[in-house]
Amino acid sequence: DRYYQDNISETDMFYWYYPEQMASLMKIYNGHPAVRKGSIKPFPDENIFAFERSTPDEKVLILDNLCQEYTSFATPAGWAGKKCINLMSGETVELGGTVTLDPYQYLILE
User: Count of CB atoms within 10 A of residue 89's CB?
Assistant: First the structure.
């Protein structure tokens, strides 16, 4: 349908093509107060959108590679050497001194 193709927003495209990811993101949003209303601490970088959201009871690190290339990022102080849960996959991740992200990959770590 040509009307639909011409009038769909990027947000709608995400919902349409990635419903499982959207459901996972909503589960994280609803289940983690730090993600919803925590204070924000940015970690400026040219290629990685990185920030921490925190409440007194929880900290979440969000890393998003904005490039079409593998990109490394210096792990923020307080996170290096820490075992985290990847909230999207449930896997345990141990952070070293740097994190390398695939093109356009993002991580939501607790």
Answer: 11
What is the per-residue burial (b if ≥16 Cβ within 10 Å, else e) of 45-79? Answer: eeebebbbbeeeeebbbbbebeeeeebebebbeeb
Q: Side-chain half-sphere of 21: how many Cα atoms within 13 Å? A: 11
Q: What is the pTM of this model?
A: 0.78
3-state secondary structure 17-63: HCHHHHHHHHHHHHHCHHHHHCEEEECCCCCEEEEEEEECCEEEEEE
Whether 37 contacts 60, CB under 8 Å: no
Q: What is the distance between the alpha carbons of residues 28 and 24, in angstroms, rounded to a whole number? A: 6
pLDDT tens-digit profile of 55-104? 999 999 999 998 899 999 999 999 999 999 999 889 999 999 999 999 98
Separation of alpha carbons 24 and 30, rounded Å: 10
